[in-house]
Design brief:
The protein is an alpha/beta fold and 571 residues long. The protein has 23 helices and 18 strands.
Length: 571
């Protein structure tokens, strides 16, 4: 391999990290908290510039409804993670473990209720809840001893981690760096994705305390730079947020030789590689007595799961699963199309979105296309669930494409079992799945629903909620279902975020209410206003976005009235 022109600078960056890795590993928890506090303050300084640069790069007018969610997938996202991690480390510094409610399920699995975790969260985010299910073999009494395992080592060894950042949202790269630093005790070289180059100055200023003291380095560049860093002997571990092809090239090597090594289960590197690679996320709809209001609310929720960040999300909804013979199924599809047509056009910004959409439409000429700025918003209804070559089942669209299929439904439990089997075995990926289920249907299913949650082979399952909300909650570990082999890694290996520092999570279950909340109540909640906060239909503007972000970085009751006032005004 020919070294890139920047090789000397890359070598110097890695030399600096190699010289500081043991210092960071052994640094006191109190000193590490001080760095987090400096990062928090810098995000608050940079947040307006951050959002403005994103809006400009994505060609979103500041007055557009699409502008509001940019606060959520940017500075707010980072701030709530920094605060949660700071609180965890403060407990560690006191010789305690992070406080969380722990119990044992009927199947013996240990469960930690991680959200809401404070009176403020309960007041603002009701009815949203999240639980983390642990891998088998971890007892409730033993779980606290596994949390923050790195900090239980007397003399930990330092390591240099290479973080290959995501291109759809720069905040993910920042969160990956924090995970390596604080959960695993490793210094980090961050290579950002060229798609987010416009945010390089903001990221540099946010990370500057850690950069100045030699614990983080940041580089930009193309695939040649990435390949050079991956092979560099100074790099001990690699974390990637990106695509399966990139993962396999790192682990097995590129081209035909890499494919032969993958087929033979012979990695070309001995380095530990963790990854978050996305997938084809299902939304499983369970039949029930849905009212007209329920159909509208769930259709809007499905559209929000798809269209947040214009579909350029690893956990974006992609395949809607409906039961055969359910009279309200066609009505739900009609409502989804109606909600999509209500959205204002926007530009699909991620490279390759147009080609991926065209490829799917060419395979399905009857697809419904809604004109937008460059890539049509696309619905592909009525796919054959038995078609093993169906592209919508095996290839992530990573853009504004939503597909639908129907499964036989001899009875409700049989349909649910079939839907879980379909999601586990026909759809690519293990990252995120959703169940939409009416309360009376939940009652009718009883334990069958709980069994379905056990059987779903996904890192996060949402019950009446977008699993992506779990990625926004830093207490929830985020990643594909554990146990995948490197040669068939699907959505990746390992967990990030994970502010409570769990050592062996299996999956997160996030739940919300099925029924839309009464309008008067919505105005008293952040989670359920007139629309989900991640929805493009949400009316909040820059004032609410700024106040929400400040609340995320400084969660105090005195900031709540101003946030609610701005949200109510749509300001």
């Amino acid at each position: 391999m020919v070294p890139p022109p920047t090789a000397p600078a890359l070598d110097r960056a890695l030399d600096t990290l190699a010289g500081s890795k043991d210092v960071w590993a052994c640094l006191s928890v109190t000193d590490k908290i001080a760095y987090l506090e400096q990062v928090r303050r810098r995000v608050l300084v940079e947040m307006d510039r951050w959002v403005a640069l994103e809006l400009d790069a994505k060609r979103i007018p500041p007055s557009s409804p699409w502008a509001g969610p940019e606060w959520g997938i940017g500075p707010w996202y980072l701030l709530v993670a920094v605060v949660a991690l700071r609180d965890t480390l403060a407990a560690v510094a006191r010789g305690q473990v992070p406080s969380t409610e722990i119990h044992r399920r009927g199947d013996g699995r240990t469960v930690a209720t991680v959200f809401p975790s404070s009176p403020l969260e309960r007041a603002l985010y009701t009815p949203l809840t999240a639980q983390v299910w642990m891998q088998p073999g971890v007892s409730p009494s033993a779980l606290p001893e596994t949390m923050g395992a790195f900090y239980r080592q007397a003399h930990p060894d330092g390591k240099v981690a290479l973080v290959l950042g995501a291109g759809n949202a720069v905040v993910l790269a920042l969160l990956d760096v924090l995970h390596k630093l604080y959960a695993e005790g490793q210094v980090a070289l961050l290579k950002t994705n060229p798609v987010v180059d416009h945010l390089t100055p903001v990221v540099e200023r946010i990370l500057s305390p850690l950069v100045d003291d030699g614990f983080v380095r940041m580089v930009t560049g193309d695939a040649a730079v990435g390949a050079y860093l991956v092979a560099h002997p100074t790099v001990d571990e690699i974390h990637l947020t990106g695509g399966l092809a990139t993962h396999d090239a790192i682990v097995f090597g590129p081209g035909a030789e890499g494919e032969r090594r993958r087929a033979a289960h012979r990695p070309s590197t001995a380095k530990r590689v963790t990854s978050e690679l996305g997938g084809v996320s299902p939304v499983i709809v369970l039949p029930g007595p849905w009212s007209a209001a329920d159909l509208r609310a769930q259709a809007e929720k499905i559209v929000a799961m798809k269209m947040n960040n214009c579909g350029h999300n690893c956990m974006a909804a992609q395949v809607l699963v409906l039961p055969a013979g359910w009279p309200q199924g066609p009505q739900l599809l009609t409502e989804i199309e109606r909600h999509l047509r209500l959205l204002r056009p926007r530009r699909a910004f991620y490279p390759g979105a147009e080609q991926r959409q065209r490829h799917l439409v060419e395979a399905h000429p009857d697809a419904i296309e809604i004109a937008s700025a460059n890539v049509p918003w696309t619905m592909i209804w009525g796919l054959d669930p038995e078609d093993e070559d169906e592209l919508a089942f095996t290839r992530e669209a990573f853009g504004p494409v939503l597909a639908q299929t129907t499964l036989p439904a001899p009875d409700l439990p049989a349909y649910l079992r079939a839907a879980v089997d379909f999601a586990n075995h026909r759809l690519f990926g293990t990252l995120a799945a959703t169940l939409l289920v009416h309360p009376s249907t939940q009652h009718e299913l009883g334990q069958e629903l709980d069994v379905a949650l056990e059987r779903l082979e996904y890192g996060t399952v949402g019950v009446n909620e977008w699993p992506g909300m779990a990625s926004f909650l830093p207490q929830c570990p985020w990643g594909g279902a554990p146990g995948r082999p490197l040669e068939n890694v699907q959505s990746g290996r390992g967990f990030v975020h994970n502010a409570l520092l769990f050592a062996c999570p299996e999956k997160t279950i996030i739940r919300s209410s099925f029924h839309p909340a009464p309008r008067a109540w919505r105005h008293g909640q952040l989670q359920l206003l007139a629309h989900p906060l991640y929805s493009a239909n949400h009316p909040f503007g820059p004032v609410a976005g700024r106040r929400l972000t400040r609340l995320g970085g400084n969660p105090r009751w005195r900031h709540v009235p101003g946030v609610l006032a701005a949200l109510a005004r749509g300001a």
